[in-house]
Amino acid sequence: MDTIALVLLILIAAGVVYVSAGILFEWFISAIIFLSGIIITFIGNFLTLLLQIAIRIKRLFLKTKHLLERVGVS
Description:
Layout: H1 2-71
């Protein structure tokens, strides 16, 4: 009787470990996906900001060039 109880206890413990490992692995994967989404969003916002700054600098350069052409400075 003790051997059967010991085997059942080991099987139950193994099942609990298996289920816990599955839940922890699932949580780990979901955390990685969540963090990668945040990183991708941050990088996208940063690149958009850089693009807007570059466009504004280009417009300012073109306006300055046009103004200098109108004044006659080469």
